[in-house]
Design a protein that fits this description.
single chain; 130 residues; 7 helices; 8% strand; elongated
């Protein structure tokens, strides 16, 4: 095949580039990579991938492509609240005071998941599977 002859006659550096960026091509070829790769990774795989992305440009570019696809497809915000639910208390010893004045000191904070949280959630990584 024509392409095979070109690859066989390429330099070592060109072969290395092909090998590094083949994963990018495969990622983009999946109709739904998150569904296709769901449950295939471990927490250690994710941790290793993120560490390698700090030093290796090809891995960093792949990480950016994956995180970009996650942000485009899924809601990546996490909402936390500081409001405490007192309904689980058996007896409200402060009822007299709370009847006098009702104040709602709830603080809602929305922030984006970390990259690790995104990868773990949207690839459905079992946290018990190392």
């Amino acid at each position: 095949m024509f392409e095979q002859i070109i690859l066989e006659n390429s330099s070592e550096k060109q072969a290395m580039i092909t090998q590094k960026y083949l994963v990018h091509h495969i990622w983009s070829a999946y109709p739904d990579p998150f569904e296709a790769l769901k449950g295939k990774f471990t927490k250690d795989n994710i941790t290793d991938f993120l560490k390698r992305a700090e030093k290796d440009d090809a891995v960093k570019q792949l990480k950016h492509a994956i995180i970009g696809d996650i942000r485009a497809k899924f809601d990546t915000t996490v909402t936390t609240s500081t409001n405490f639910d007192y309904s689980m208390e058996e007896e409200d010893i402060y009822k007299y005071y709370s009847d006098a004045e009702e104040t709602e000191d709830e603080t809602v904070v929305e922030q984006e998941m970390t990259e690790e949280e995104m990868l773990l959630k949207f690839f459905d990584v079992d946290p018990n599977k190392l």
